[in-house]
């Protein structure tokens, strides 16, 4: 696959699940899965040989794998901690079968921050995970709440990466912002989710974290952010203009963002967004991602990057160089 001059390709927001977690999620989660294709995607989520076949067919050398669809994060506390631990053990087991094809991010029971910090340390130091993933706000609470500080303190101590992934927004948010008499219930669910709402909420999450001083206090951890940065790069200068009014942080918002945040497209293969992000961040802060199996763009995953109007140095950084550095691959 890497014969000739074919560039190495690593995609960094790719997902898995386990039968045990799906069962537990369906049984105990108050947040219902809103992906209408969840059942038909199950083989590609659970079976790692399916993933390998897909990667081989489409020229993907490595995936950085995480659980983001039905994360144990949203389970009641008594199930979340054990559920996250079980996910990480199973992921490590699967990676050990294909160590040169997969790297993993730990599922964190973020609703129990002390345990989440312990699980992050265990997963990184004992299981070889390359960081952790947090999916959306936690029970309607944003991560700038001081109760979540142990997670960032541990990530900082380890010098590791947290992937901030969107999650399902609260019913109250959905009702106020997206429900409408003018279109269907499915329409409002999609608008509140993958079409717009998830991403807007995740951008708010990032804005709050930096404004609250979390990056100032913890300069050694990194954040990976998909979907071209969940709206933030488009507003960096705007946010900088207002930040001095609301914080006394020594650096500008964009300084923290450009120092500690790494972006990828999550299957949103759109040239104008790519150019914006490269202009704001530089290729050394941009990676590639497809969002498999929720997005299955096949050969386009590689072709879009190969044909993009960028320099060869940028292409190599985005295809594999940035990810190799960030995740120590």
Quaternary structure classification: single chain
Q: How far is the first residue's CA from the last residue's CA?
A: 18 Å
Query: Which segments are poorly predicted (pLDDT under 50) over 5 or more consecutive residues?
Result: none
Quick one: biggest sheet?
A: 5 strands, parallel
Order of helices and strands: EHHHEHEEHEHEHHHHEHHEHHH
CATH architecture: Alpha-Beta Barrel
Structural class: alpha/beta
The backbone outline, from C-alpha atoms, is globular
Number of domains: 1
Helix proportion range: 40-55%
What is the highest CATH level, the class? Alpha Beta
Mean pLDDT: 93
Tally of helical segments: 15
CATH superfamily: Metal-dependent hydrolases
Number of strands: 8
- Per the CATH scheme, the topology name is TIM Barrel
The proportion of residues in beta strands is 5-15%
Domain Amidohydrolase-related: 48-329
Keywords: Hydrolase, Lyase
Protein name: Amidohydrolase family protein
GO molecular function, one term: hydrolase activity
């Amino acid at each position: 696959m890497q014969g000739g001059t074919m560039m190495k390709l690593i995609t960094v927001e790719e997902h898995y699940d386990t039968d045990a977690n799906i069962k537990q999620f369906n049984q105990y989660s108050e947040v219902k899965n809103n992906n209408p294709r969840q059942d038909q995607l199950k083989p590609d989520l659970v079976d790692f040989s399916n993933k390998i076949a897909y990667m081989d067919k489409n020229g993907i050398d490595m995936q950085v794998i995480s659980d983001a669809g039905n994360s144990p994060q949203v389970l009641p506390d008594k199930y979340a901690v054990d559920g996250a631990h079980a996910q990480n053990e199973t992921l490590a087991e699967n990676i050990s079968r294909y160590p040169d094809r997969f790297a993993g991010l730990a599922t964190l029971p973020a609703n129990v921050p002390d345990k989440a910090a312990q699980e992050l340390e265990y997963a990184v130091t004992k299981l070889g995970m390359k960081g952790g993933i947090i999916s959306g706000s936690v029970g309607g609470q944003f991560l700038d709440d001081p109760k979540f500080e142990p997670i960032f303190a541990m990530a900082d101590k380890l010098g590791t990466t947290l992937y901030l992934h969107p999650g399902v927004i609260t019913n109250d948010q959905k009702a106020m912002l997206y429900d409408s008499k003018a279109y269907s219930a499915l329409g409002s669910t999609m608008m509140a989710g993958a079409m717009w709402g998830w991403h807007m909420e995740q951008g708010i999450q990032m804005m709050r974290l930096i404004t609250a001083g979390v990056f100032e206090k913890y300069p050694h951890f990194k954040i990976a952010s998909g979907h071209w940065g969940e709206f933030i790069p488009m507003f960096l200068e705007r946010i900088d203009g207002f930040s001095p009014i609301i914080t006394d942080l020594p650096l500008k918002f964009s300084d923290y963002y450009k120092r500690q945040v790494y972006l990828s497209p999550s299957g949103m293969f759109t040239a104008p967004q790519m150019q914006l992000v490269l202009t704001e961040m530089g290729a050394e802060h941009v990676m590639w991602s497809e969002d498999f199996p929720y997005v299955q763009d096949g050969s386009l995953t590689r072709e879009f990057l190969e044909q993009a109007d960028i320099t060869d140095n940028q292409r190599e950084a985005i295809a594999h160089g940035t990810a190799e550095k960030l995740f120590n691959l």
